[in-house]
Design goal:
Chain lengths: 592, 92
């Protein structure tokens, strides 16, 4: 028996959702029949719209997918304008104000407080500029990720950008691939540093080569079945296939079709392709792919560069661990990676980012998988001018490690799954740690990822310190808490975090991290990375080093923020919610 | 330690309950996650799931228990929970 979601998808899905969406938008949010809302909200995801959580009815999150994180000249300014015009809610965020946008871990853009009535106008403006929210969410090809400096990086082995763009052009809006059993996350990387994070994607193209007739042929090895969610993290499995860039588009569709036909449509929690890989194993997977989905003989995997991977590897001595900072491109110009703490940027700042990109670069901006942005194509003689811009005081190319290493998901501010506040909390954490904790000598990069629940949107399992939302009781009161894991990361030897403590009250987490780092400093060997230290230290010792402690850090969001309508409202009780609201913000009467 | 076995999000029935595991040689006390759900694939049972926090356990290995309740059993349990809850004072 198929799931309810599958039934809804059978009735209406894919491109045809758009027409009804526009009809509802014209008539107003309240025109969606109450008993059809769940179905329509599920379908709207295919067009990038997530209905916000309880207490925020009639408001949506809008996700705009930007393949490989590339924003062409003019697109960043447009996103800033749209955020400024439409992403305004009834209450300000105390840290970020009104009208902001989020750069995401899948190199996309998210706006909040979007009203359905405004969606047609937003879509029109996006599409006129070559942007789209199509398939940014839902059960199909999500935004394709990759090394954010593809085509520009000096370390690139094969240019992955045409492949990412080709996959995007071929399979977005392709009816045969529009309705998959679950989300479909693809990574395409051509660099030697592992920047695509292919290990945690459903399908990964990673640089490799084979020898043919004495010639070295460049292309990609394939891995399938990575992902972090559902308490079942998996690194993608090598399926022993090499493809040339020319074959990559076809094989991407072939594997998507295999997933479409064989993925589990009866249980959404077992639907991701990682569970099919669990069931089949790579040999059977490859056999079925060869037999039923490609019409050429698949070549065995070539020689890869995984031993050189440095991205999110926790090893400061290697290549790039992220893309922050000033780096030479292969054409002699430079790219400048700016740190955006937890990925959130005000609309005015985003407009200034666009202006700086126009003035000092080519106008292009790129989004990274660490929620940061890059201004590309900066000539050497323009670097000083860009680096002196006031915007870079806040979005620094040389940030403190605690600012640089912070990632956070959306959290209870808007998300219906999260059980704790996240983005503002990670900002508070980073600022407190910067002021009060000294990192051991030689440690200049340290990743802390905060996720609000086990869905793992902040990729907590691949951080030095993994934080994930829970509850505990403190002084008799239920308070927000975090499970804490240690030692996760990617690189040559990817590993998931070891979970060391559970339910640490949120106000004691900074103290725990301070104590942990002091212990690492005291007990680590000369030159030993944090990950290596965690790896050789037993869990009991790690737990004792990670001693929770109250400090000067105070947390204003200790209470159960998931029970509020909006955590930062003066009266945050669900009963005080102004939602649902008409397009002008006035409450819709009689709809609860 | 391995990860939690039960997913925990805003739809989890109780993300924090007090729990005890009773063995022949003693009792373990730990915070726990309690969840009630119906599987999406051809449901035949109500699943009542319990996982004590792994880090709080001394001798019990981390695990989750799952009761597979028929509709009648689930209603019996629900009725018993209501009746017993009414006996607590003050009534919440």
């Amino acid at each position: 028996m198929v799931t309810e979601v599958e039934r809804w998808k059978t009735e209406v899905y894919g491109a045809e959702i758009r027409e009804q969406l526009e009809t509802f938008a014209a008539a107003g949010w309240a025109s969606i029949p109450a008993d059809e809302r769940d179905a329509w909200f599920e379908r709207f995801k295919w067009w990038g719209l997530y209905h916000q959580r309880a207490g925020q009815e009639s408001y949506f999150m809008l996700r705009i997918g930007t393949p490989n994180g590339v924003l062409a000249p003019g697109q960043t300014a447009l996103l800033a304008e749209i955020a400024d015009t439409y992403a305004r809610g009834p209450v300000s965020n105390p840290t970020f104000g009104d009208a902001y946008l989020d750069w995401t871990t899948r190199q996309s853009v998210q706006l909040h407080w979007i009203r359905l009535e405004d969606v047609p106008a937003i879509f029109e403006r996006l599409e006129a500029a070559g942007l789209s929210a199509q398939q940014a969410c839902g059960d199909s090809w999500r935004n394709i990720v990759g090394c954010p400096v593809a085509g520009k990086d000096r370390h690139e082995y094969v240019d992955a950008l045409p492949v990412a763009e080709g996959l995007h052009a071929t399979y977005k809006g392709n009816e045969a691939h529009a309705n998959l059993p679950r989300k479909w996350k693809v990574s395409v990387t051509g660099c030697r540093e592992g920047c695509g994070q292919g290990d945690i994607n459903d399908l990964a193209f990673e640089p490799a080569y084979v020898e043919r007739g004495g010639e070295r042929v460049r292309g990609f090895n394939l891995r399938v079945g990575g992902g972090l969610a559902r308490n079942a993290p998996r690194f993608a499995t090598d399926i022993d296939v090499f493809v040339t860039p020319e074959e990559a588009i076809a094989v991407g569709g072939a594997i998507s079709a295999l997933f479409r036909d064989h993925g589990d449509r009866e249980d959404r929690y077992s639907a991701r392709i990682k569970f099919l890989m669990d069931e089949w194993g790579p040999e059977r997977f490859r056999r079925v792919l060869q037999r039923d989905y490609v019409d050429w003989e698949l070549q065995p995997a070539g020689t890869d560069f995984r031993a050189e991977y440095s991205y999110n590897a926790g090893d400061a001595d290697g290549g790039h661990n992220d893309h922050v900072g000033v780096h030479p491109q292969r054409d002699g110009r430079y790219y400048v990676g700016l740190n955006v703490l937890v990925g959130r940027m005000g609309a005015a700042d985003a407009a200034e980012l666009a202006r700086l990109a126009d003035r000092y670069g080519s106008g292009e901006v790129r989004i990274t998988q660490r929620q940061n942005v890059i201004i590309t194509d900066v000539p050497e003689d323009a670097l000083d001018g860009l680096l002196a811009a006031p915007l870079l005081e806040h979005y620094a190319p040389d940030p403190h490690p605690f600012m640089r290493g912070s990632i956070a998901c959306t959290g209870t501010e808007f998300c219906s799954l999260s059980i704790v506040e996240t983005k503002n909390r990670q900002v508070r954490y980073a600022r407190w740690l910067k002021e009060h904790v000294t990192l051991p000598d030689g440690v200049d990069e340290f990743h802390i990822h905060l996720s609000g629940c086990t869905a793992s949107c902040a990729q907590p399992q691949i951080a030095d310190v993994s934080l994930r939302g829970m509850k505990t009781r403190k002084d008799g009161e239920a308070v927000e808490a975090l499970d804490i894991g240690l030692g996760g990361g990617l690189g040559a030897e990817p590993q998931f975090a070891t979970w060391v403590r559970q339910r640490v009250p949120v106000d004691e987490v900074p103290g725990a991290i301070r104590n942990l780092l002091a212990g690492y400093d005291a007990h680590s060997r000369e030159g030993e990375t944090f990950r290596a230290f965690v790896s050789r230290t037993d869990e009991e010792t790690l737990a004792s080093l990670l001693e929770p402690e109250e400090t000067s850090y105070t947390d204003p969001m200790m209470h159960n923020t998931k029970l509020t309508w909006y955590p930062y409202a003066a009266d945050d009780a669900l009963a005080a919610s102004p939602a649902p609201a008409h397009a002008d913000g006035s409450p819709i009467e009689g709809d609860d | 330690m391995t990860d939690r076995l039960l997913r925990v999000n805003a739809y989890t029935t109780c993300d924090l309950v007090e729990a005890e595991a009773v063995g022949p040689d003693g009792t373990e006390t730990a915070p726990a996650v309690l969840n009630v759900r119906v599987p999406r694939r051809a449901p035949k049972h109500v699943h009542l799931e319990l996982e004590l926090d792994g880090t709080a356990l001394e001798w019990l290995p981390p695990h989750a228990d799952r009761l597979l309740l028929s509709a009648v059993e689930a209603r019996t349990v629900a009725d018993a929970l209501r009746d017993c809850a009414d006996e607590l004072t003050p009534v919440e």
